[in-house]
Amino acid sequence: MEQYFIIDFDSTFTQVEALDELARISLKNHPDREGIYKKIEDLTNASMEGKLSFTQSLEARVKLLEANRDHLKQLISHLKKKVSTSFSRNTIFFKNHQDEVLIVSGGFKEFITPVVTEYHIKKENIYANTFEFDAEGNIIGYDRSNPLSQEGGKVKLLKELQLPGDIYGIGDGYSDFQLKESGMIKKFFAFTENIERKSVTERADHITPSFDEFLYLNKLPRAISYPKNRIKCLTVGNIDEDASAQMAKEGYNIRHRESIEEKYLEEAGVLFCDEENQPNPEQIINAGRLKVIGIFGKCNRKLADAATESGIIIFDDPKHNPHNNDFIPRRVMGFMNEGKTHTSCNFPDLQPPRVNNAHRLIHIHKNVPGILAKINEVFARHNINIVGEFLVTNAQIGYVITDVNTGYDTQVLNELKAIEHTIRFRLLY
What we know:
The chain is α/β, with parallel strands linked by helices.
């Protein structure tokens, strides 16, 4: 059976509400601009939470804009920089599912189309309102015959389209939930990467903090193998809020404790700690999910040895660099996203380039002869083409990154994990 994916635009595909942003452009010299901004934001929220009809909200907001075509050009440039992080990294999904992805929005084609078509979304699959202009290019209204300008517009549109298959909806607002309420879609996913509306999340089939999570739940191809919102980042001790904020923005599930507590460490995939609150070797051995440690200070030698033996990478900043609140998160994200180990204090140095249209596999093993040959023998037996391969070693471990063509049996992963002397194995993307 065919599948279709109905995706909202404002606060879903993009991080912002476009009409709110347009107001900030068109009214920037207006003497009462702050008051008008507030009115428009209140109207947006009231509609998105189901407290005001969409028709009333849209009409009132457009009247307040005082915008023209030049303002729209500025808005488009701004919105292209505000695509939601988890959408922008999953371009490959949109490329491979061009016929099944529909953008359905109460926004306007004039600014939606230039943004989403850069992600392989077809113009004919973009459903939104259209502005009306006067001879000078000023916005004077919109096409009121368009069902998307009306209350329950998304439901009306889907009734007209009569899509033959299972339909999945993803969005942040009440109009998106109405699709589920109508019984026309199989599942509704409340998207909370940018904003979380309780009136919507409490009625959703699933809450999805990122587009990665949506793709993961539906077993669809994605840029990363495991959604970051499912990975806990434990911060311990005196960790600057800026460092935690960077990880939260990347999508990690942040937890903070004043000192190491084993039950939290055992759940963590990432650990940030200060110099005074480093875990001991025994705690590291029991931290089965831990992949990377960022230490704001100097790493002690016993921890480094224990972490290496367990296949856990460490980035530290022994010079107490004033920029380490940015340095440590960037290094941790470089490892988690692409397998980069540069500046690690316990892993061999590797900075592989990202390869598109390929899967990246990380294999960490004891530094003994013959492991690379065994890895490649698995690939050869399953007729898997290797796009690129990198091996670096130190006295304790070997670190292999292999980029392979997409498409293979999951049995391959099990065989790679089972190679003798393997410490850790991970599918990166």
